[in-house]
Predict the structure of RNA polymerase sigma-70 factor (ECF subfamily).
Amino acid sequence: MTHARPLGADGATFLAAVRSGDPARFALITERHRRELQVHCYRMLANYQDAQDMTQETFLRAWNKRESFKGHAALRTWLYRIATNACLDFLEKRNDRTPVPSGLADPGSEVLYLQPYPDRMLPEDPQESVVARETIELAFIVAVQHLPPRQRAVLILRDVLGWPASTAADALELTVASVTSALQRARATMRSQLPDRRLDWRSPATHELSDDERGVVKAYIDAHEQGDLDGLTSLLRDELRFAMLPEMGTVPMTAEDAVGGWVSGGLFQRGHDDWRGTTTTVNRMPAAALYLRAPGDPEYRLFAIAVLHIVDGKIAELTGFDATDEPWLGLPPTL
């Protein structure tokens, strides 16, 4: 929870830092909030690199506006307010940060700027981590992108962070009535985008991978390393939803069509058949980091990240990300 409360030790220390005018002292106090603010920006923007930039922008704005902190609200509330408005300003200027039509038979839309979020950068605060999986999974992040920016901010402040309507209204310079109306519309959109998912993000949620999930990821990696196409096919649900970003959006297909398409595209053919993989997690979801060794190359090089949504022991959704030359996952570039 980040809403207003009486000035505590953290706020008093921060006020002293503000009055001292010492940027190092100021940075030392604000830096402890970096991870949670970065997750907040990621929920708003769905792009890890943009979230990093806006978190840095938040600290710059906080320094420039330091005299405006009077201790009437918690320091975290003040920083979240700045971060939210930095994201809104960013979205106002970037017309490429909205979902685009899928181009498929169904009238859906795709978030082609989506990037995965490395679990190693999630907050260490237990209160934040307990809800992290429900509100950091790719399905949630994608659904949020279908909200207009201000509705997006209202939903995250009210339903994810648990702010009172009055605090959210003050942060966004809206009336309480406007916040309440925006939240109702946002919730309706989220229900349409996440029809089969839990919508109560304020209650505790597990964030540990199950043994079932770990087993499927291992089998998925083994199938790549052994070139076992039948085994790979058997791991996929026949109503698979597949995406490989940023080249294409989500495509529903059968398991056989998915594997057949990968083979016809060159995977598992000569030059693309020497795989190694490691199990990892991004967005609190099971994932496989896939490394490919080209003929004559002594090393396996990071090729792609496959993020898996597993239902009843089968892969129901597979979101692939091109990971070549991408720094945002913190994975070793070679094996």
In short: The chain has 14 helices and eight strands. The radius of gyration is 22 Å. The chain has two domains: 9-193, 211-322.
